[in-house]
Amino acid sequence: MLTSFRGRLAVSLAALACGISTPALAQTVLPAEEVEDDGTDTGAFTISANASVTTDYRFRGVSLSAGDPAIQGGVDVAHDSGFYVGMWASSIEGGPAYGELEFDVYGGWSGQLTDAVSMDVGLLYYAYPSNDLDVDVDYWEPYASVGFNLGPAEATVGAAYAFEQDSLGGDDNLYIYTDLSTGLPGTPLTLSGHLGYTDGVLAPPLLAGDTDDSGLDWSIGASMSASILEVGIAYVGVEGPSIDGFTDDTIVATVTASF
């Protein structure tokens, strides 16, 4: 989530390597609305926002900024029932087909199933409003994840499925991933690891010109928070041909402010 998913796919710097570079966000709680005529308390809303600069926008291991820095940011609105909506944007270098901007809109539900288990389900829409070609490249992707509190560590397993769409060439794409993070006792550091698997039209080897339509991406990183800022660094890699500034292994650094 980006409070939920976008941030595609686990919160904090663990999400950075798999396409989500959003931290746990500061929150502003709006006062609860008055009880409606039917006696239903509509509850309170939470607004959170973030802005970041990253040395390379890696989405599931693949660079969408041609290996160059990117500016990113988003806003989420969540209800205390667990339902949320949000938007997130990043500068990209997508050429004539995708342009220079990715704009994501999403909504879903997240909440605790037990004290140690949480769930997040939703729908994400990827839009590229600055593309210069008269072609449809926007696409939809439902997602779901389950989080586990393992004492000093946290783990997430999830999946995202982009069903067959014209913008994907009439093909589909399945992404399965797991994230693990833990704080280092006595330090402000959090270590994170990520492993993802893509099967379909967005597989890293296929995007790099290979015939294989499946492949892994991975990362290992560390982050540190102070006040509204989070600074992180991660080593990111993917399977398949190594293309400089696209699918090559790299180190990504990110600074994020949350409000």
Automatic annotation (TrEMBL):
Name of one Pfam family that matches: Gcw_chp
InterPro entries from the UniProt entry: CHP02001
Signal peptide, first to last residue: 1-26
Keywords assigned by UniProt, alphabetized: Signal
NCBIfam families documented for this protein: gcw_chp
Protein name: TorF family putative porin
Taxonomic lineage of the native organism: Bacteria, Pseudomonadati, Pseudomonadota, Alphaproteobacteria, Sphingomonadales
